[in-house]
Amino acid sequence: MAPFGGWDMPIQYESILAEAKAVRSNAGMFDVSHMGRIEFTGPGAAEFLNRILSSDVPKLRIGRARYGVICNPQGGIIDDAIVYRLDEERYLLVPNAGNADEVIDWLKKWSPNSGVTMSVITDYLAMIAVQGPRAVEMLDSLTTHELSKVRPFRIVEAPLLGTDALLARTGYTGEDGFEVMLPSASAVTLWDALTKRGATPCGLGSRDVLRLEAGLPLHGNDIDATTNPYEAGLGRFVDPDRDDYVAGDALQQIRDAGPERSLVGFVMRGRGIARHGHHIMNGPDHIGEVTSGSVSPTLDMNIGMGYVPTCLSDGGTRLQIDVRGRLIEAEIVPLPFYSRRKSE
Fold it and tell me: Which of 8, 127, 133, 247 shows the smallest number of beta carbons within 10 Å?
């Protein structure tokens, strides 16, 4: 156990390797109740969120989810988040745990108008992610709703173990599955039911390895207020040309000029593990920093991500990682490292 974002969180239950393997081959479950949950209701909810989020919120249909970033007026990434449209005038925003307070303060700064009610429901709604090839099957046995018919990045409200739950076909592992939000009092009941059906309890350690294999950025490592979505490879999630979007002007300029650096994935061609903060070298020149790095149990290789000048970001480019004074050869490769569709 370790403190994380104001919560006590499990780093691992059995082992990071075993938990990662369980998610890739069967099903794993993560208690992600530390993630923020903020509900917006009222006739002005869509317009308010449209000022704050990187994508066009009014175009989001009921029952759909959309990933995006929350940027400051300079285009820096305050957080990445998913927004769900639950009803005509009801939205749910899920930011990261470590940034939840900052996101709430940022939302308050832009003062929702009288047509919007903002409610922080994190303490009242638990969140459990069930991920892996058998995840849908396991959850299907606990509800009358046919979850196998729910498409990716959709959300449904359905009865689950005697209570009403929100089930979103989203996740942070690169596998199929759902993120289940239900009253906190019912969380243990769901956890026990999934355990009986063979789901493996998983902690933050395996979640970090899995998201890195899937090429998904972690705020605080790969993205933060000093990075913008275009250099982070998230430009497809940004529509900067909307009226009243708080980061619109800055992001238009960044987009039109093109990023000077780019977030890339690399594999270690020599023996060594890249870690956050290690220098990326091009011969004698220090050209960037490793933002994430680990052993990939799925691919049986050492992988990482980091920022390099855009002119050196093409796949196949050879660079070196300074691992405690030793320069280890690495090669830039396309992201993601692991894709469920590629492996099937």
Answer: 8
